Amino acid sequence: KEFDFSSGITVVIGPNASGKTNLLEAIHLLATGRSLRAQIEAEMISYGEELARVEGMVKNQEGEKDELTIVLTVGEVAGEKVAKKRYLINGVAKRMIDFVGNLRSVYFGPEDLNIIFDSPSQRRDYLNSILEPVDREYRRASLSYQKGLRQRNKLLEQIRDEGRPHSILFFWNKLLLENGEIITRKREELITFINQQPQRFFRIQIHYDKSIISPQRLKNYTDAEIAAGMTLVGPHRDDFQLQAAEDKETKRNLHRFGSRGEQRMAVFSLKLAEFEFVIQKTEERPVLLLDDIFSELDQEHRKRLLVIIPKQQTIITTTDIHLIEPEYRQKLEIIRLR
Fold it and tell me: Which residue among 21, 137, 240, 323 is least enclosed by CB atoms within 10 Å?
């Protein structure tokens, strides 16, 4: 299937299971190299098929065009199906680190409530999903840190099980310290930015529960890490809480003490702050992807949203065009799925 989108607002209308979210997922995949939903990359390939391919023609601020392509193929490793992913720009193969960032997008859909409810690893993934496409230093640090973490954990197991000397950790400790400091600093900058944003929908604050990595903390945790066979300190253990900021002094944990409506508005405010962060970092307005958002908002908040979104290319999905106020419909390009 091939689609052309307006440079303004495009509304994709269709019944449930017509492929609306798949379309947004394909755009987001070209922007970030990651699926919105699949934890295992092979799940992005249609059931029973061996290959998936997404192509997009993008135009930058100077009017130059690039064709971005991601190809996924299924193979087997130790009897398990795994996906191999290839990145191409204008037909030339690229590393993921060089591919990501050629298209910028911010996605918001109903599943983003999981930022509040899911595990700390999901919230760390959310921070990564913002920073990696817009900050090359962070992207490099994150890749190096994950590689070093896997290797260090293997060595911790070998010290425990085979009696190897502690000195084998020296190089990997240094690698984790250098890259962990970059990751923590960049995450702090992002969270500070979000906390300072004016809130159009709901006043939020993020409480950053960071796991500092330092030579002293690695030393203090050495025995416990050897016993566990894993690294127990560092940004791979970070977490954060989304809070309602009722005033300067009063902060309320929305996971424990927020209504469903408050949680929705808080996550949407978070996404708008993410949008502003991308603009500040890149001096470009990303494509805004809104999946069935109008069914989640009351009439007043829908009107507020429609004031904000015309400033950049926006792609919205909905099952019902009547959720969009009549005075705005004439400004929209409509794609119908069946």
Answer: 137
